[in-house]
Amino acid sequence: MRIDAITIFPEYFDALNLSLLGKARDNNLIQFEAHDLRTYTSDKHKTVDDSPYGGGAGMLMKPEPWGLAFDDLLAADGETVIVFTNPAGEVFKQATAHELAGVKHIVFACGRYEGIDQRVVDYAATKGKVRLISIGDYILNGGEVAAIAMIESIARLIPGVIGNAESLVEESHTESGLLEYPSYTKPASWRGFDVPEVLTSGNHAAIAAWRHAQQVERTKAVRPDLLSD
Ligand code: JA5
Question: Residues with beta carbon inside 6 Å of ligand 1?
Fold first, then answer.
């Protein structure tokens, strides 16, 4: 799988060199590159922004550097998925990560300022499949942090990226719509807090029942939307 990101702050993506994902890159399971949008400008000041037609606060990203970046990075086969980070987009879910983990080439377009000229999205849609995606209902200063979260979530689903295959199997429980049960390790008693007795009982059926009850209780309390949706 190949992933590219277009951004005015490529250094954000240095975080992806760390740990598991860095190894996946080293082992050629994933090719990732962050591209500086300013390299696609030709003026002395490497301008990427301009004021909005019709007025309004702030600046927008101008289309020309994006067009050159897409001409450079999008495959000619129309198979690339172009993801625009956008708080007005569909919300990124684990199901989205699974969908995108099956794609050969993804380009993340990271906005800054008040966003990107709409024609950049329209142009991208002529060169591949476009998705506008949000990671949740909060404001960020730009799309980089959202793109990094999505890339980590997608990349760890690629076979070979996570060494412990069981970690992925265990997660299918989470994906079935309940929050995780609480977990404990040694010591059995710590600063006056004890591990629940059932977990040291050796009764595997009782342990499974307790864990499931904990999942339901937590989900009702914190994420009732997961039970009704
Ligand atoms: C801001 C110009 O899902 C939360 C998000 C916030 C945010 C995203 S995604 N993109 C941008 C952006 O600001 O492009």
Answer: 85-87, 111-113, 115, 134-136, 140, 142-143, 146
Which residue, by CA, sits nearest to atom 14 of ligand 1?
111
Q: Could you tell me the pTM of the whole model?
A: 0.94
pLDDT in tens, 5-42: 999 999 999 999 886 677 787 788 999 999 999 999 99
Rounded to whole angstroms, the Cα distance separating 135 from 48 reads 24
Q: For tokens 């708080």, what's the residue? A: 87
In angstroms, how far is CA 150 from the centroid of its own chain? Answer: 1
What sign does the CA torsion over 95, 98, 100, 102 have?
negative
Q: Which of 168, 195, 182 is nearest to 221 (CA)?
A: 182
Q: What are phi and psi of 90, to 5 degrees?
A: -60, 150
